[in-house]
Amino acid sequence: MSASPKSILRSDPTRVVITWQDGTTSAWTAAELRRECPCARCIHEITGQRLLDPTSVSDDTTQQDLALVGNYAVSMYFSDGHHTGIYTWKLLRELAPRQS
């Protein structure tokens, strides 16, 4: 299983679609990704306990910007103003069911 993307499509602000090097495609809504934010404000750095209440994230959440972080991740700016999460390729592969 390749852990790096071949392409990232974000033409729709409510969705992010990644096609991986192995041909697998993974898709998420912006709300799904916001609920899984791995930053220190959303997950306790020491205990790993989720601090963000997933029900506090609206299904209407959009991603307004997506930027590469080195060769290993992306960061996103969400419509609720949150922007500190770094989504590694490994994390994104773990979060998405395989689709083709």
Question: What's this entry about, in short?
Answer:
Helix content is 13%, strand content 32%. It is an alpha+beta fold and 100 residues long.
Structural class per helix/strand content?
alpha+beta
At the fold tier of CATH, the topology name is NE0471 N-terminal domain-like
For the biggest β-sheet, the strand order reads 1-2-3
Mean pLDDT: 92
Rg, rounded, reads: 13 Å
Largest beta-sheet details: 3 strands, antiparallel
List segments where confidence is low: pLDDT < 50 over at least 5 consecutive residues: none
Number of strands: 6
Strand content: 25-35%
Silhouette: globular
What is the helix content?
Answer: 10-25%
Helices and strands, in N-to-C order?
EEEHEEEH
Measured between the Cα atoms of the first and last residue, the distance is 14 Å
Number of helices: 2
Overall CATH class: Alpha Beta
From the 3D coordinates, which CATH architecture would you assign? Answer: 2-Layer Sandwich
**How many separate domains?**
1
Description:
The structure is a single chain. This protein is α+β, with helices and mostly antiparallel strands. It has a single domain (5-95), classed as NE0471 N-terminal domain-like. It is built from two helices and six strands, in the order βββαβββα. A three-stranded antiparallel sheet has the order 1-2-3. A three-stranded antiparallel sheet has the order 4-5-6. A hairpin with a 3-residue loop joins strand 4 and strand 5. The longest helix is centred in the C-terminal third of the chain and has 7 residues, at 89-95. The relative contact order is 0.24. The model has no long low-confidence stretch (mean pLDDT 92).
